[in-house]
Amino acid sequence: MINKRRHARELALSALYAHELSGNSVSTIIETTILNLDEEKDVKEFAADLLTKCVEHKEELEELIIQQAHNWKYDRIAVLDTLTMRIAICEFLYFKDIPPKVTIDEAIEISKKYSTEKSGTFVNGVLDGVLILLKKAGRLKKSGRGLQE
Description:
Elements (H helix, E strand, L loop, with lengths): L1 H21 L3 H10 L5 H16 L1 H11 L10 H16 L5 H15 L4 H18 L13
Helix pairs in contact: 1-2, 1-3, 1-5, 2-3, 3-5, 4-5, 4-7, 5-6, 5-7, 6-7
């Protein structure tokens, strides 16, 4: 399950990157970067759902990153780190069945794999801050066994 979800997150990251660079519609990006792949249906569905929600809530997700990326100008943060954090924060807010700790661990591993040497530490710090902020604001709505922290 984790391997499938990780793979779906990586597909979503690739699709989000393609969307950012091309400016093509979400439906076009889903069609060309996710649906045409030879992947299991649930992997493609999760990746497409992540992409769609990340694009729909882009401004909100970016604002949360900006609030927690102290001493960093948003446009100076590595693009893949930004996209990875947007995916993770999207999971915090819009995927009620995924524990926040799993989301953070996945984001760290993905950022270390695809971005810079120090990305894991940076992403971890920002996401921890966002998680605390969301909890304080009562915006973290997780349901299911083991999901309430």
